[in-house]
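Lab notebook, page 48
Experiment: co-folding of the full assembly
Goal: obtain a model of how the components sit together before planning crosslinking
Operator: M.T.
Materials (sequences as entered):
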Amino acid sequence: MKNAKSIAVGAAMLCGVFTASVASAATTLESVKEKGHLQCGVTSGLPGFSQPDDKGNWTGIDVDTCRAVAAAIFGDAKAVEFTPLTAKERFTALQSGEIDMLSRNTTWTLTRDASLGLNFAGVNYYDGQGFLVNKGIGVDDATQLDGATVCIQAGTTTELNLSDYFRAKGMEYKPIVFDTSEQTVQGFASGRCDVLTSDRSQLAALRSKLSDPDSAKILPNTISKEPLGPVVRQGDDQWFNIVKWVLSVQINAEELGVTSANVDDMLKSDNPNIQRLLGTDGDMGAKLGLPADFGAKAIKQVGNYGEMYDRNVGPDTPLGLERGINALWTEGGVMYAPPVR
Amino acid sequence: MAESTMKAPKKRIDPVRWARENLFSSWHNTILTLLVGYLIVTSVGPLLNWVLLDANFQGSDPSDCTGAGACWLFINQRLNFFIYGFYPEEFQWRVDIMFGLLALSFAPQFIERFPGRKWLGLFGLTGLPIVGYFLIPGGLFGLEEVQSSKWGGLMLTLILAYIGIIASLPIGTLLALGRRSEMPIIRGLCVVFIEVWRAVPLITVLFMASVMLPLFLPEGMNFEKLARALIGITLWQSAYMAEVIRGGLQAIPRGQYEAASALGLGYWKKMGLIILPQALKLVIPGIVNTFISLFKDTTLVLIIGLFDILGTVQSTVTDPAWQNVAVEGYVFVAFCFWVFCFGISRYSQNLERKLDTGHRT
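Observation: model returned without errors.
Model output:
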């Protein structure tokens, strides 16, 4: 046992050496520019976050986060290649340099941030775990779920959060575990369980798959914090800053009312905040190693944060998610980006 | 030339008599017949309704799927993605050429008198992978490069299965010969190789290839995920193939080996001219069995994030814009697999008949 542990530690150190040597060989920005495209890791199919559409083009809020970075670097939001990754592979792919950034519905936690050689470059969606219940059982709040049968998808942190929550409240539950999300919905629809639990961002979509969506409702409780965001390798601060600030620029743009539609007019704005954001004043781009108009390019081609949200997961999409805590801090949410100055 | 013998009279089929003999011969057979008949009558109707009569084929968006039947429209809309994955549309002709060549090489094998049939088959086994090697990834002869991460769908399934199949046969043959070799080092190496690769599940091999391997390689050597998966599949499949072929080698009587040696043939001539042709012919069913199982096992690449045909379907059936299209998606995948596996199976039976020289006693 002890032996196995030391081997594991040795292997981890070896990995550390490799990633360190990778980072020192050439900066990520240089190697991305040399390749001519950004290599971005995404999920292999999660509605609203990253999923191939009819034409095989990737769409979703995670995908747009990558496109914005590509637009900032190359002035071309299409200069990005996507690598679909499973949950198990995602960190290895980033550590080994197979991808330049990971934008794959990944929760920012202490363990991941501190022990995997990664840096979380911000949050593009604040998610949390919630419950979908059958209206027939007459439950309005998760605290009334004592003794419920719960449908869960196997192998996700959802399982752990659920057991933590019920234990903390001193309640009993009976889990019924399924392999895929479709099976979980089928289990719920066929009445094998009273409650289905999943990330709130997915509950609305799962509900819409029911033959009678009105028979079920989403409870107001959120039992876990799942801040999702782009991730980069540790050890390349310039690249970390680029990814972090492209997202921040998008959030700031929404706050300042700059959209993809009006960005060209905004270039003439005399608001110093907007001038710095779009690169008409100051040398913000140069500080990151990017062109001066990187913000303008990202907003023009991908849009500000609000546009990105509305296009992929907002109320008018099949996912139909209200802004909620993902609204700007000025509108009662927690989306708050440090200022560009 | 006049026919000197009379043909046996054609057996007249009397339906009532046939039914009495086969379906109602005893009371328990009668019960079974009625039961099965009832099941068929009650299930075929709804199935037919779902698959064809109530199904939706035409339209442009999810709202056109109205009927209680299957929504084939979904498959129709995504067919391009299911076949080519992310392969850019303007270069898909390159894949089409490969599909065409594949059909051209193997379809004639079913037609006895097709001219140059043998050469086409030989091309399918040797030339086709070479053409594919240049045509599909591109990057040479002025062809635009298409990264392997963009390959997907049915095309990727076929690439994985095809390369796995044609590479594992020669490697497996060599391993089988090595395992029966009299040279202890070669024998030892082959035994270790076979036993190690055969003792791990394919899923483990794929995980090692996609998750562990990159960590141990320096940056410059970071070769593509697809290549890593292909090497893993090929080595794994070779170990299985080796054991099937060894079964054939063992079935050849000792006299054949001795007779070949008595003719003064060296080792390779003995194996190549006398032993292997007989042994391989004997184990065709076993070889084809492993081919078919490999063909289906390729779906496991799903767990390392490669989009084979099952992966493309699975990633799109969760699209919230469509209502419950999972069943249609999976039926479509099952149908594709059935077509190919059945084709392989028919081809092998054809081959068996053709090679049957009636030596069996």
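Interpretation: Chain B has 14 helices and no strands.
Next step: discuss with group before ordering constructs.
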